[in-house]
Every structure is written in structure tokens, then in C-alpha cells.
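As agreed, record copied across for absentees:
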Amino acid sequence: MATRLGVLVFGAALAACGKSSSSSAPPGDPTAPAAAPARATVEITLLYGSEKKTWLEEQITAFNAGHPTAPDGAPLHVTGTPSGSGEAMTAILGGTAKPTVFSPASSAYVTLLDEAWLAQPGHPKPLAPAGEPLVLSPIVIAMWKPMAEALGWPGKPLGWGDILAVSRDPKGWGGHGRPEWGAMKLGHTHPEYSNSGLLSVLAIAYAGAHTTRGLDAKGLAASRKFMADVEDAIVHYGQSTGFFADKMIERGPTYLSAAVLYENLVIESYGRTPAPALPLVAIYPVEGTFWSDHPYSVLDADWVTPGQRAGAAAFLAFLKARPQQERALALGFRPVDPAISVGAPIDLAHGVDAKQPQTLLEVPDGPTLTALLATWRATKKPADVVLVFDKSGSMGGAPLERAKAGAKAFLATLDARDEVTLEFFDNNIYPAFGPVPVGASKAELEARIDGISAGGETALYDATRTAYRLLAGRRTASAHRIRAAVIMTDGTDNKSTTTLPELLAELGGEDRAATVFTIAYGSEPSRDALMAIAKAGAGSFSEGDVTSIIQVYRDLASFF
């Protein structure tokens, strides 16, 4: 075999030499035809809703592996960045992201992007064409199967009215014979950060207006009380639909009774390891819901070249081909190709119904969506937040100044109706300031933050327990508020009388008084302890340093 290979190579070399010798121009002759220059690779960038991350990552890898080329022969290469739909829109508007393609979870965000883009100076034309849908997934209310059955599922059509009825009943789930389940606890994402939050608020507005089409200012006004009453069941908001799915499955019914998710996330829950303690099922609101249509919008921007536009069209054709659509179905999405039959896993065995949704709602125009967000801000559940701030000696210098800036950025994102308490600690727990409304007291809150200096050691566990007990003591006064503690520290506890096991036991009790969020600042804090505190307190854990702490605080504000 080796000899034969050598003969073939040698023969090929002779053939090449012979071909060269027959040329009229000798080697090195300047009259010889020049080799064609290599074509520059055309980079196509996607900024897309993270709900379809698994599917898109697979397809981007497969597309690039095929060494695709544009019609003119230029090599193509696709990269993608997952993001919350609202985050992605904000990044494009702010100029920090300049993708070729914007693919949020819903066309509603394409509409909002254009509305905001045209409102900026120097933007005379729309930025984002409507685009073609890639896959479909309806917005659903995910609920634990026993709770849904208590409401009449699957025989009875359920919706927002049923959520509201349990929420407003003084007996909570006791009105359905299950007092041990407590109150109705609902979760949906923040509509200014996340597509599912935007569409859930829009669906609630339609339900309150008793219509399925043509929502306008009059309809929004009619829906205000209904929206406020439904929002009163909220445990907290959030930035990511996936966060609610993950935490709901991890923490069980004591954390959330129901959450607004995508149908594919309910399906995905059946493949989790370990499996949830109870199965989830999808409720398709009888008042109506929306498809998340995942539009593929090639931006009409000056940073998108004709070559990128052609490459984006080639990738779109690839995504809509049958093999890619069948893979989307296997992951729980509904294909946009009508020739592909919808079957497993979109079935009752995975908690969903292929015949639903029966009633679809209309996405209104940009001005109405903008007015919707203003209505939601006026009716959303306000917060009672204790901001716990580590001022120990290790915070001195730049870390303290950046942490102060982060805390003030957090205040800036809160609603005027939200109430804040400041609690500072080192080896001592200092008397709290508050609760005071952000709108009337923002200047004083900022002045108190600016006035602190670093010193002392770290009594983290005592400070956390103190904040939690402050909120527990205000349970009645703050019954219609999101109660939460936000704990920031750059160190490890070395002065508390409370032990970590004692603290975790109190935070993780059945009758939770508040949600606890933790921030590990810098490189020295005990990450494991802070993660355990956030888990016991049914909140989230974040990390930041002097370069990122401001954004960490801003991101946390999405929970309120």
C-alpha cells in the first residue's frame, strides 16, 4: 500500500511538472496568470432569545461544519449569542451589540425595537423587518399537576381567572380542599427584560379587557384592576424564563404554584435528572395566549453588508429545512414547516396538548406595547427590599466606591412605590434606616450610602438573619409587596453568633417570610456559604467585582 501511494504521488508530481512545462510562460514569468486571491470569510452574527439555545447551537455547529459559501463563492461563518429578548433589544439600541440577525422569542420585541429605534434622533427608517418565524412555542401557565387537577384540569378550561380566584381567596388553596398548599404563588419574568414577561402581561391585559383583538388605551384602562389583582400573586419577577423553570423544578410547590413559561420548557422538565418531585402540566389560558414565533429578522442597518445579508438568507434556508425542523420538534418546539406532523414529545405524556392553544391573541402595535409597559409599571406588585451592605475593612478604597455606585444604580431601577431599608454591617449590625419609599426618599438613601466608610470585620450571618427578621416582622404591613433581602459581602463571616446551619434552617422554613438574594463581591467571599444562603432563601446568587458590580445590581433589580 505504501509503495502504491508513493507511485501515485510521484505520478501526480510528474503530471504537474508536465503541465507546467507545456505552459507558454516559464515559472516566475510575470506574464503568468496570477492565482485567485482567497475570499474573505463573511461573518454572520445572531443575537437570539436564549429559549432556543440548545437547538441553535447545534444548528450553527452543523452549518459551519459544512463549509458553506455565498453565491459569489465567499466562505460563510455563523456565530450566535443567546440573550434575553429585552436585554438584546437594549444592547442593540445602546450600540453595544450590532448583530446581522435579531431573533427574539417573539415578534413583539421586533415591534418594540423598531418603535424605540425610530424614536432616537437620526433614525429615519425602521431597523428590524418582521422576519420569518423559525420555530413555534405557545406561552403557557406551567402548574404542578395536582394543583391543576384541583382546579379541574384537564377537563375544565383554565386561565387567568382561576389564578386570580385562588389568589384572592383568603383561604388560598384551602378553598379547593388543600390548605397545606398555602397561597397562590405566581412567577413571571420582568416584561422589560424578557419576552415571556411581556407576553404574559399582555395576555393579562387582554383578559382584563375581555377581548382578544384590538387592545388599545381604553382596553388598557379597563384592565388595570384585573392586572393589579393578578400581579398581587407574584412572588418576584426575574430576567430569565429559564431561571423560573429551573428554580421551580428545583424548589417545588413551596416556591411557586405556577409560572409563565414556554410550552417547550414544560416538555423539557420531563427529561430532567433528577426528575421533579411532581410533574408539571401546561395550562393554555382560556382567555387566550400567544405563540412565541422566534422571528429571524435580518437588520436593515448600516453595519450589515450585502454579503452578510446573503449569508443570513442561506442560514435561514438551512434552519427551515426539514432535518433542522424535525430536530426542533424533538426538543419540544413546534416546527413552522406544516408538512411535519406534530407528535411526541408534544403530547399528554409530557404535560402538554397538541390541540392547544385554542384562542390566540393579537400582538398590538408599538405605541400600544409601550403604553402596556407603562400600565404594568403602575400596577405591578411593589417591593419591600432590605439592602444589606458590607462595610468591613476589606471593602476600603475602590471596592467600596464601586459598591456604592452599584447600590445607587439598584435604587435607580426600582419603582417609586417600592420601599427600601438600608442595613450596614461589619462586625456590628447597625440600626436600619427605613423602610422608606424610593420615590420620596431616593436622595436620602443615596446620601446614606455615600456617607459610609470601611472598617471592622464581617458578621455576615447575623446581618442576614437581622434583615430576614425585619421582613418577617413586616409580613402583615407588606402583605401585598415582594419582600426580599439583597445581601452583598466581600468577605467570609468571622464575627457572627449565628451559625450557618442555624441561618439556613430559618431561611428555608415552610412559611418563608421573604426571598434572599446574595452577591459575592471580589475574590475573597465564601461563595459556598452565599450560594447556600440564596438557595435556602429561594433567591439567586450573583458574583461581581469592581468592574461588574454596578451591572450585577442592575440585573438584580429585574426581580422587582
